[in-house]
Amino acid sequence: MKKNIVITGGLGNIGRELCQEFLKQGHHLIIIDKNKKNYSILAKNFTKKDHLFINANIGSEKQIHMIAKKILSKYKRI
Question: What is the dihedral of CA 37, 44, 77, 12, to 10 degrees?
Answer without folding.
Answer: -40
